[in-house]
Amino acid sequence: MTKLRISTGSDMEKEAGYSRAIVDGDWCFVSGTTGYDYKTMTMPDDIVAQAHNCFATIIQTLEEAGFSLQDIVRTKYYVTSRKHADAAFPVFGHYLGEVRPAATLIICDLLREEMKIEIEVTAKKSA
Fold this sequence. Notes:
Blueprint: E1 4-6, H1 11-16, E2 21-24, E3 27-34, H2 47-65, E4 72-79, H3 82-96, E5 102-107, E6 117-124
Parallel strand pairs: 4-5
Antiparallel strand pairs: 1-2, 2-3, 3-6, 4-6
Helix pairs in contact: 2-3
């Protein structure tokens, strides 16, 4: 089976050599997604707004790939501080509270100072 590459068309994807997502059979691997707001072309200051933006991009990517939030089996959250993690937990629950995938949260620096969160997901279609 051929791999399907999903792209937003951003210059960063080409420059850094990655795709927004890769579909391989029943699997969809969504790259780390930051809180950038593509409607306003800005990065909000607020961790909650950034987390919602991450999920908006993830949902759009999954739908383009033929998947949905319900297909997510694994999440990896990268946040820049413990306080940001505490503020983002309700957002995670809002989108994935019923799905409850396996999850990891890592406190770390991100590429740009204004980035407070990055979310990576793996989805698998059920048989």
